[in-house]
Amino acid sequence: MQCDGRLSAERAAEVLGENPRTVHRRWQALIGDGTVKVIAQPVRPDSVGALLLRIKVLKGKLDALTAALAARPDIPFIDLSASGDEISAVSFTEPGSRDHLVFRQLPATPAVASVSVATVLHVFSEASDWRHDVLTAAERAALTPVRTPSASVPPAVSEPGTGLGPVDADILAALSDDARTPAAAIAVRTGHPASTVRRRLARLMADGRLSTQVAVDPRRLGLFIDANVMMQVPPDHLDAVGRTLARHPAVHGAFATSGAANLHAAVWVPDLAALYRLITEDLTGLGIAGVETVIVGQAVKRPGR
Q1: What is the pTM of this model?
Q2: Which CATH number is 124-131+219-297 given?
Q3: 180 secondary structure, DSSP code
């Protein structure tokens, strides 16, 4: 499903050499118990940037501030540190703008002891790029759809700032909570003809304007340690190190940022021993000048969860 969130059980069974009924039954179990959730990922416009926030919180004020941040649609990620006194969050904003949350709201909040902000300068990989490393290269290639951008005429009327027509926007909205929703169900929900929904859905996928992400509970995969690793990397090494980390199977997000720690990586590993090996072995020899590691105590808000 990480290769194609709308993959059919029959196609998966064919590639993996399994019984279609077995595949379907296991998928239903994984989705039913909350282990995985397949969500739609519309393409984010270039006009939307991101800030990485580290918020130190006074004792006893953590829950209220976390709930207030989680209610904001412009904040898709919130983690609480294992130490219980720091919130890590991602905030979407207009690049270069004087963000109201950062400059006014957080500093004026009595619960906040301090705020540090880093601007995301470059994305090497993000959560939707992460793959559970169990398929062969041939299996992954067979299961991943090939994008074939269409040269057809775009919708005559587009939603402001999206480049999407109203039918496309309705389809994306219908898929926002479950990207595996059948076309027939989308047609009933939106009121558009099923044939139109199927055609526009196929076009959105082929054009790359709609992708899917499998939001997964990493603990069910034996990955019990969630951590954010912040590194200081000399400029002449930054791009190479970022690309190397993006390919690492433990990394589910790697970003070049402003600030002294100019490379951030989010990692999932089985235990503390594996985290120690990642820092002392996998990060050595890359030219990294310094490392700070924050272990996540609770993932409060992430796409699909």
Answers
A1: 0.81
A2: 3.30.70.920
A3: T
